[in-house]
Amino acid sequence: MEYTIMQTKISQLLQTVEADALIITDPFNMRYLSGFSGGEGALFLAKDRLVLITDSRYTEAAERESSFTVIEENRSHPRMQIFRECLKEAGAASIGYEDLSLRCAEFDRMRSELPEELNWIPLGDQVDRTRRIKTPEEIELLAKAEAIGDQAFLEILKILQPGMTELEAAAELEYQMRKAGAGGFSFDTIMASGKNTSMPHAVPSEKKLEQGDFVTMDFGCTWQGYCSDMTRTIVLGEADEKQREIYQTVLAAQEAALSVLRPGLTGQEVDKAARDLISDAGYGAYFGHGLGHSVGLFIHEEPRLSPTGLDVLEAGMIETVEPGIYVPGFGGVRIEDMVVLTEDGYRNLASSPKCLIEL
Ligand code: ZN
Ligand code: ZN
C-alpha cells in the first residue's frame, strides 16, 4: 500500500484511540501497516515518526519492503532502549498497545522498562478494523490466492483415488498449490474422508480413501501474504441417496446465502438465509458453526457471518460462505467459496465447480 495512504490510516488510528504513539507487535498488523513480511520485531508509530524495529536476520528485507525507518535491535541496542528513544523523540505521553495479542510477560516488561508516567491505552480491535475493507490491490492478491486454490483443486481431482491415505492426499493437494505459485498455506489443510467428514475440522489421518467415501477438502494458500480459503466435498465413486440429499441441501443453503449477500446486511441476516434452509430440510442440528468469516493477511478475520454477527457488511469486505451438514457416524459436507462484497452484491473469487462430483 502507498506510504501516504498508510500514513493517513495511522494518523486516523492515533486520533481514534487518542494515543500519541502506538507499539505494534502482531505480525499481521505489522505487515499491513509497514509492508514488512518478516513478522519479527515491532513498530513504533507516532504522527511524524514511523519506525520498524527488527533484528539482523531481517533488516535487509525490511528496508526493501518498507518505507518506514528501519532500526536494528541487538544486544547493544535492545528494543526497550529503542522504544525509549522513540518515545522521547516523539514527545509521547500515551501509548496504544495491542491488548488482544500481546503476551502478558511482554506487556509487563514494557511497563517496567519504559517511563513510569506513560499512559497505556489498549487498542482492542482498532487496528483490525482498519484492515476490514480491502483496497483494490488487496482484492486482486486475494483473488490470485483463491485462483491458485482453484487450479490445485482441478489437479487433485485427477490424483485422488481409493487406497490413498488422507495424509497422502493432503500432501498432494499442498504440492499442487505450491506448484501453482503458493507462497505458503493459510492453515493446515483439511483432508477428511468417509465418516471422518462429520468432523468440520478433521485432521488428515492414515485412513485410506475408500470407494463411496465423501472426501472433504478445506484448503488455502497465500499469495504475497494474502490468504485463500476454499472447501469442496466430492464422492469417490457413485453417491448414495443420502449423500446426494445432504450435498444438495448444503449447496442450496450456500446459494440461498449468496442470493441475499450484499452490503447493508448484517452477518446474522446472511447466516440466517443458509441456516433456515438447512433447518427446514431437517438438518438444523447438524450445522453447528457460523456461515463464514472475513479473510485477509490472516485466515479468520472479522466481521463474521454467524448467528451473532451484528456488524453491517460493506463493499470491499471479504467473506467466506461455507455452510455444512455434519452427521456423526455418517459423514458431512461443506462447500466454501470466498467472495468480495461489491456496491450491489458480491463477486465470487472462487470458480471451482460446485455440482456434486462423483470421481
Ligand atoms: Zn476453509
Ligand atoms: Zn473458512
- State Rg: 23 Å
Q: How many runs of DSSP E, i.e. beta strands?
A: 19
Element pattern in H and E: HEHEEHEHEHEHHHEEEEEEHHEEEEEEE
Query: Roughly how many Å apart are the termini?
Result: 43 Å
Q: What does the overall shape look like?
A: elongated
Strand order of the largest sheet: 4-3-2-1-5-6
Low-confidence stretches: none
Q: Helix amount, in percent?
A: 25-40%
Average predicted local confidence, pLDDT: 97
Q: What structural class is derived from the secondary structure elements?
A: alpha+beta
Q: In percent, how much strand structure appears in the residues? A: 15-25%
Bound molecules: zinc ion
What does the main sheet amount to?
Answer: 6 strands, mixed
**What is the number of helices?**
10
Q: What would you say this structure looks like, in words?
A:
The protein has 359 residues and is α+β, with helices and mostly antiparallel strands. It has helices spanning 3-17, 27-34, 59-65, 79-90, 104-113, 126-130, 136-159, 166-179, 241-260, 267-280; strands spanning 21-24, 42-46, 49-54, 69-72, 94-97, 119-122, 184-185, 190-193, 214-219, 221-223, 226-227, 230-235, 292-294, 301-305, 318-321, 324-327, 331-334, 337-342, 345-348. Helix 3 links the parallel strand 3 (49-54) and strand 4 (69-72). Helix 7 crosses helix 8 and helix 9 (241-260) runs antiparallel to helix 10 (267-280). The longest helix is centred in the middle third of the chain and has 24 residues, at 136-159. The model has no long low-confidence stretch (mean pLDDT 97). The structure holds zinc ion (2 copies). One zinc ion (ZN) binds at residues 229, 293, 320, 322, 336. Residues 218, 229, 231, 336 line the site of one zinc ion (ZN).
